[in-house]
Amino acid sequence: MRILIISDTHIPAVAKELPPIIKEEASKSDCCIHAGDLIVASVLDDLSRLTETYAVCGNMDSFDLKKDLPERTVIELEEVKIGLIHGRGSPATLMDYLKKEFKQQTKELNMIIFGHTHYPLDKEMDGLIYFNPGSPTDKIFAPYPSYGIIEIAGKNIKRRIVKIG
């Protein structure tokens, strides 16, 4: 199973639409996971036309998105359980926030996907993968725009951050 991972698209505040590479990757993927800060529902609509899409709301999302999307969720794909959340607060305290938010499910989870910092991260700690795809549209806090691809086969997770440009 091939999954496109994105976050912090910030449309239309930072870009008018999703970058062409994101649309191309979505159409080649079994599903897409968006870790929040879509800003407007049309981003979710666009992605959903290309592939099945899971999303959570972020701190910058519209009222309607915050009403319709959960703040956090757990997704099970094949034999992998993924915690999905946007994140909040300072990058210095974000990992503590993630651990606290998923404290009840930590033993069940294989991976936590999050956004908020715009900075890509692929880190394993205490047997749990923490994965932030960065932002495909906004590099304000990152050296480059990026997204993630994960491939799942049973319980195996292969992951990579892809630099745009």
How would you describe the overall organization of this protein?
There is one protein chain. The chain is of the alpha/beta class. It is built from four helices and ten strands; from the N terminus they run βαβαβαββαβββββ. It has helices spanning 20-28, 41-50, 63-68, 94-101; strands spanning 2-6, 31-34, 52-55, 72-77, 80-85, 111-113, 121-125, 128-132, 146-153, 156-163. The strands form two sheets. Strands 3-2-1-9-10 form a five-stranded mixed sheet, covered by helices on one side. Strands 4-5-6-8-7 form a five-stranded mixed sheet, with no helix packed on it. The model has no long low-confidence stretch (mean pLDDT 95).
How would you describe this structure in keywords?
Purple Acid Phosphatase, chain A, domain 2; five-stranded mixed β-sheet
Helix/strand layout:
Elements: E1 2-6, H1 20-28, E2 31-34, H2 41-50, E3 52-55, H3 63-68, E4 72-77, E5 80-85, H4 94-101, E6 111-113, E7 121-125, E8 128-132, E9 146-153, E10 156-163
Strand sequence of the main sheet, in spatial order?
Answer: 3-2-1-9-10
Tell me which oligomeric state these chains represent. single chain
CATH class wording? Alpha Beta
Helix content: 10-25%
Domain count: 1
Low-confidence stretches: none
Query: What value does the average pLDDT take?
Result: 95
**H-E order:** EHEHEHEEHEEEEE
Classify the fold: give the CATH topology: Purple Acid Phosphatase, chain A, domain 2
* Rough outline: globular
CATH superfamily: Metallo-dependent phosphatases
Class computed from helices, strands and strand pairing: alpha/beta
Major β-sheet profile: 5 strands, mixed
Q: What is the β-strand count?
A: 10
